Amino acid sequence: MAIINSASELLHLSEGDILRDFGKFVFPKLVYKFPQFITPYKHPKDFLKSVHGMVHVEVRKLYEAAQTPQFVYHEPSEKELIIEYHSPRKICQFFEGLIEGAAEYFRSPITFQQKQCVHSGAQFCEYFLTFV
């Protein structure tokens, strides 16, 4: 976070903007470094639904000290996904950038709206995603 804070001051951007841009930037690097977690999926919704139950489990095997967020999923329809983002690190903007990176990687637009946020006093962040 010290790097994010310094970048924010240098670039005159909010820390949230820096985190979001970094998440979007890092997604293709994650695909390159860990293709086995991403390439089996043909659609971003399927990939995103796998993150908590498969990707984060494997990340913790590789990096024992990793502090991965907890996700809870709700699927109101085929084209919609609600993700609860639970993380003591509270870097939900990074998660938003990863969503944008996934949309670009899969070439499948995603619109999302944050319904609640820990930075506004909520216990967890909640995102409502729509897949076009």
Largest sheet: 4 strands, antiparallel
Share in helix? 40-55%
Percent strand equals 15-25%
The value of Rg in angstroms is 15 Å
Q: How widely separated are the two ends?
A: 34 Å
Mean pLDDT reading: 92
Order of helices and strands: HHHHEEHEE
DSSP summary, beta strand count = 4
Instruction: Please give the order of strands in the largest beta sheet.
Output: 1-2-4-3
| Unreliable stretches | none
Could you characterize what this model shows?
- This protein has 132 residues and is of the alpha+beta class.
- 51% of the residues lie in helices and 22% in strands.
- A 4-stranded antiparallel beta sheet has the order 1-2-4-3, with helices on one face.
- Strand 3 and strand 4 form a beta hairpin.
- Helix 1 crosses helix 2 and helix 2 crosses helix 5.
- It is globular and about 40 Å long.
- The mean pLDDT is 92.
Kindly list the characteristics that best describe this protein.
5 helices; 132 residues; globular; four-stranded antiparallel β-sheet; single chain; alpha+beta
